[in-house]
Specification:
- The complex is a heterodimer of chains A (365) and B (259).
- By secondary structure, chain A is mostly helical.
- Chain A has a domain of 240 residues.
- In chain A, 49% of the residues are buried.
- Chain B has 259 residues and is α/β, with parallel strands linked by helices.
- Chain B has a six-stranded mixed beta sheet, with helices on both faces. Chain B has a four-stranded antiparallel beta sheet with strand order 2-1-4-5, with helices on one face. Chain B has a two-stranded antiparallel ribbon with strand order 7-8.
- In chain B, helix 4 crosses helix 5 and helix 5 packs parallel to helix 6.
- The longest helix of chain B has 16 residues.
- Chain B starts with 5 loop residues before the first strand and ends with a helix.
- Classes of the chains: A mainly alpha (365), B alpha/beta (259).
- The interface between A and B is medium-sized, with 31 and 32 residues.
Amino acid sequence: MTDERLKQVSTLRRAMIRPELGAICGTILVFVFFFMIAGDSGMFSPEGVQNWGVVSAQFAIIAVGACLLMIAGEFDLSVGSMIGFAGVVIAILSVHMGWPVWLSIIAAFVVCVALGALNGFLVIKTGLPSFIVTLAFLYILRGLTIWLSILTTRQTIIGGVKEAAEGDPLAFLFGGVIFKDLFQWFADLGLLDTFTRGSRAGQPVVEGLPMLMVWALALVIFGHWLLTKTRFGNWIFASGGDAQAARYVGVPVNRVKILMFMFTAFCATVFATCQVMEFGSAAADRGLLKEFEAIICVVIGGALLTGGYGSVIGAALGALIFGVVQQGLFFAGAESSLFRVFLGGILILAVIMNTYIRRMITGER
Amino acid sequence: MSTPLIEMNNIEKHFGPVIALGGVSFDVMEGECHCLLGDNGAGKSTFIKTMSGVHKPTKGTMKVSGKEITFDSPRDAMENGIATVYQDLAMIPLMSVTRNFWMGREPRKSFGPFKWIDFDHANSVTLNEMARMGINLREPEQAVGTLSGGERQTVAIARAVYFGAKVLILDEPTSALGVRQTSNVLATIDRVRKSGIGVIFITHNVRHAMAVGDRFTVLNRGQTHGTAKRGEIKPEELQDLMAGGQELAELEGSLGGTI
């Protein structure tokens, strides 16, 4: 009894109509736009690619966490404060208290993931919207970060991490660069420009693949696999789609949500650790507004703000758009304040398109 | 006569000072459709939530296949073969039919420490089970939101049957549906009953109940007003019992018997 009112769906349409379609179109649009206005500025040279690639990777790391959490039906507004907090914890422990850097990093992860669990626990137990609970933590963590930093070192910027991290095994995992030989080989073949003067003469202008990008790729692949292929991923969708219906069929909704808060905190700490290792310092004001930037990436990527629908690949493309626009306007020599105008425009366009696509897929009316 | 699949004896449920159920007895046999009728506020919801493990009874006993039992959670009831299809919480519309069908019991494949959902198996079972219920899906990955209300109920029923339900509790499955969809759901109930499953059909629509019911129990103000077999009672009498008085009869007269 096939319903004669249903049209057969073509393979093309099925391949096109997917949650990340809006983000794919946005990515193409942004690349075409910057090819036209900044194609000859060095934006698409190896250094240029590395420049916006690193920025996009940073956004991607926090967007993956925010994406899975949003699909599970919750928000975390404390991501930005968590980034500042984690960085300062690492710096205080390693520089001020003299702990080995690897131990400081582990300690920061443990503390932050525990804070993520506390966020989740409070949301579940009180039944308050996560918006309110994590907004409180946005202030609590930022305040604690500044206070701790001033209390121990009398300043809000703590340097000296680079020296302390010299030769540290775990520090390399966050601040290191891999495939140096491969990039040197590319340079020898003439595929990559080399420095012509100075102490690094003969070395390629792009040293290798930063661990930050490796983390971003690994988290995106892991997040996408977890969400679309595993049982736990199905529970993430279910928890955000309709928590009560999910409970009735035995999905452990509370556990799923708390784990997603912990994963978001984990991603924020990865971001913070990479940043501290890159700059060699921590500052109490790091990560400002990152929670909103993560949420923007996720929404551009096609996720539904109320949960139950979204895509990690979409969020990663959202992060790419974000990074390319932010750095691209700089390459194009445009006024940097225009970045926000541009971003707001893309946000609106992407969300309108995503809403339309989602209605086609889910039959919402 | 064989032992009932589920037997509820003198169930009472109090919420603080409110007595929601004041001694309700109910049972369902294999391959039988037992209709539970009642008006809004009669205690139908409380009663089925007790049966499906959401609430614990204040007093009274429950037996499953002759053995006394208490349920600590809905999961507990499910493991004992009692599946409930809730009116509006049956499905998550944003998710695909397959994802909904297997939710909480996803079949998995593994390689070393990695485990993932076996979507080939999940999709083909979903398609088959839906076809058995008389619904041919375009594709199992389509979102439940694209299905009609009757089809959604059918997915939920097919899911319960596939996962080995012995007793199927249907909470007002037809109340939000159109004529055509209602008859589809009633046909599904008939099909399920013939496969030997005990169906508990909760409704306030006498005509829907009469169409498929073998026995009828009326619940009013937290108490049962007796059970009647098919053929022993007329629709008008059931309607009167539900309303619990003469008022409705008079009203019905003035409306020309169309309630």
